[in-house]
Design brief:
73% of the residues lie in helices and 0% in strands. It contains 3 helices and no strands. The relative contact order is 0.09.
Length: 45
Amino acid sequence: MDSRRKAGARSSHLEPWVVLAVESFEREMLVFYRRSQFKVVYTAT
């Protein structure tokens, strides 16, 4: 997937279920990141 046209373009170019799947996936990644942020800080910075 082209990440440059991710914001508003995906809702018009992709099927609705794809948009929902991607958004729920992003929410899961955000929750996972927040949970493991104390680990991420050491590696990312």
